[in-house]
């Protein structure tokens, strides 16, 4: 009886996972298949799943520096890479010492300050759109990539600090004390003992910060006016015109945009999962 019940639950879990996988994969599959269709085939009704005339014309146009849209698209990709990388590096540089301080030091208002940092994530990003725009205009940073780097840095910090604090909480302080006894300073003990052990948490924080910056649309649309400074999510609007939409081109551009994030996550997913699980053990 118990074995039969176990088999039923196992079957239900498998069915659920298969349905969840299909729910995730089918839109991606449709995007890829549309990107290799001709413009006429992409608009025909009823739609065809498998294109009869496969073409890589859209990918060639997007990735060729000599095509009509290639230089523009590659510029958007470069802008996104610069903004995402810069905000990720700065976010890690700020989150690592901040999380370590919350984990190891005891000071007045420690818990209140920590939960105040997390409080920012309770509000939707659009709530801060106008205040941040006014602030960036006052700082003369509107229409510069610095405005996006600063914004993405502040948006990614709360969760990054929370992830790393949970990781540091699970590293025994005795390891640092042993290094201090051997003559290392607190900073040397942190660099040589804590940092290597917290590598998965730091990588997970970097992944989160990069994905957040890479996919963000609203702030990039609001802060940037110069066409040459746009990021990829905003640059995709180029495939929409008043009377027609280049659906194969849009799907090809969307697929190229998603590739770096998917590859980054697949390569480093074990670190991300480990950081989430270890960060949830202690708070």
Provide a descriptive summary of the structure in words.
- The protein is mainly alpha-helical.
- It has one domain: MetI-like (MetI-like fold).
- The chain has 13 helices and no strands.
- Helix 4 crosses helix 10 (199-215).
- The chain is globular and about 70 Å long.
- The model has no long low-confidence stretch (mean pLDDT 83).
Task: Write a brief caption for the model.
With 283 residues, this protein is mainly alpha-helical. The protein has helices spanning 2-35, 39-43, 57-63, 70-104, 110-119, 129-138, 145-169, 173-181, 186-197, 199-215, 218-223, 232-235, 247-279.
Amino-to-carboxy terminus distance = 41 Å
Which class do the helix and strand fractions yield? mainly alpha
Q: How much is the radius of gyration in Å?
A: 23 Å
| Biggest sheet record | none
Question: What's the average pLDDT?
Answer: 83
What is the CATH topology classification name? MetI-like fold
Helix content: over 70%
Total domains? 1
- What is the H/E order? HHHHHHHHHHHHH
Strand tally, please?
0
